[in-house]
Automatic annotation (TrEMBL):
Compartment(s) where it occurs, according to its Swiss-Prot or TrEMBL record: Cytoplasm
Predominant location: cytoplasm
Family listed: Belongs to the MetA family.
Gene name of the encoded protein: metAA
NCBIfam families found in the cross-reference section: metA
Source organism per UniProt: Domibacillus epiphyticus
Recorded GO MF terms: homoserine O-acetyltransferase activity; homoserine O-succinyltransferase activity
Protein name as annotated: Homoserine O-acetyltransferase
Keyword Thylakoid found: no
Stored PANTHER family: HOMOSERINE O-SUCCINYLTRANSFERASE
Length: 302
């Protein structure tokens, strides 16, 4: 089933080339089902790439999805035009006039900062608090996952000796959990972060369930027992070349950075890396939308 997005959104052209089912507003209004309304708080600097990453996954399920994008009013992004934000994004104050079936909070390249030093931290806390009663389920990605663990459950992050970057094998803990339906016992996920969270702290918390982890990259996937918060510290939404683009960007900046692990064929950065995680990315988002959003959300919000 399709995703319903603004006609002029740049990601639309990318998705249409990949035969992702996109519906215009006129056709969407003729559908005799209630679409899911998903809000995406896009904190990533290259917003248009992140839009395409997430819309690709949201557009490959049997559900009709209306997508709205959210940006922070307390911080002005330097990597996207103001006109793009004004045309395709809203602020939390505008979003508060309605309720949403699902919310996605992306990562942000600010892991080494203390949460309280992030200039939009108070606004993000407001958004996460609002979501408790106005969103059926929230999916948090990378730094967004760490922010949720800290804000909701008091679990902080710690700095790693070096950046954890690459494609790592993760093991699932319980294949009967609905979010993991269809997953292999072991699966790959891209990881790109300078910080981590304690696997022991997650396992010890009475409100959290650890779903997948790696001996090399730590905890990847966890959720609250009420399923309202799902956290993933990796980037299943990434394209095959996204880690390579980040690596080349850091080298160009003169950053002392290691090559992503288990990524380039023969550890040769001139060779195109294969995508080893695409099927599980689609499974994760499909399962989230079906079991934790569609199956749980009321037909009419009261």
């Amino acid at each position: 089933m399709p995703i319903n997005i603004p006609y002029q959104l740049p990601a639309r052209e990318v998705l249409e080339r990949e035969n992702i089912f996109i519906m215009d507003a006129d056709r969407a209004r003729m559908q005799d089902i209630r679409p899911l309304n998903i809000l995406i708080l896009n904190l990533m600097p290259e917003k248009e790439k992140t839009e395409a990453h997430l819309l690709r996954l949201l557009g490959n399920t049997p559900l009709q999805v209306n997508v709205s994008f959210l940006y922070t009013a307390t911080y002005e992004s330097k990597n996207v035009s103001k006109s793009h934000l004004e045309q395709f994004y809203i602020t939390i104050e505008e979003a508060k006039s309605r309720r949403y079936d699902g919310l996605i909070i992306t990562g942000a390249p600010i892991e080494l900062m203390e949460f309280e030093n992030v200039n939009y931290w108070a606004e993000l806390q407001d958004i996460m608090n609002w979501a408790k009663t106005n969103v059926t389920s929230t999916l948090h990605i990378c730094w967004g996952a760490q922010a949720a663990l800290y804000h909701h459950y008091g679990i902080g992050k710690f700095e790693l000796p070096k950046k954890c970057s690459g494609v790592f094998k993760h093991s699932i803990t319980d294949p009967t959990i609905k979010l993991l339906r269809g997953f292999d016992d072991e699966f790959f996920s891209p990881v790109s972060r300078y910080t981590d969270v304690s696997i022991e702290a997650i396992e010890a918390h009475e409100d959290l369930i650890l779903l997948a982890s790696s001996p090399d990259a730590g905890p990847l996937l966890m959720m609250s027992k009420d399923a309202r918060n799902i956290m993933i510290t990796g980037h299943l939404e990434y394209d095959a070349t996204t880690l390579a683009e980040e690596y080349e960007r850091d080298l160009a900046k003169g950053v002392d950075i290691a090559m992503p692990e288990n990524y380039f064929p023969d550890d040769d950065p001139t060779k195109r890396p294969p995508n080893k995680w695409r099927s599980h990315a689609h499974l994760l988002y499909s399962n989230w939308l079906n079991y934790y959003v569609y199956q749980q959300t009321p037909y009419e919000w009261k």
